[in-house]
Amino acid sequence: MRNMVQNRSLARAISDASWRELRAMLEYKTAWYGRELVVVDRWFSSSKLCSVCGAIAGSMPLDVRSWECGCGAVHDRDVNAAKNILAAGLAER
Questions:
Q1: Does 46 share its domain with 8?
Q2: pTM for the predicted model, two decimal places
Q3: How far is CA 90 from CA 11, 39, 71, in A?
Q4: What are phi and psi of 74, to 5 degrees?
Q5: From CA 39, how far away is CA 23, in angstroms rounded?
Q6: Domains identified in the chain, total number
């Protein structure tokens, strides 16, 4: 959060987003329905980790939207990150 606010063009929108309130609501709702909220480490490199073989890609600027791993798998950055976050959350349970 702190790093995202340093971006001058996005600072106001990010500050207005009430991230703490969102997390409080998620915790409340998961407790209400008897579920568990799993929080993944903020430094988890989800978009650079290959969801197929587990290899970590080198430095990757944000404008790179898809990349190919050494194992031959081609990843969309966002879809790959979603798969890795799901797997990390399931592993913590």
A1: no
A2: 0.72
A3: 32, 11, 24
A4: -105, 125
A5: 10
A6: 2
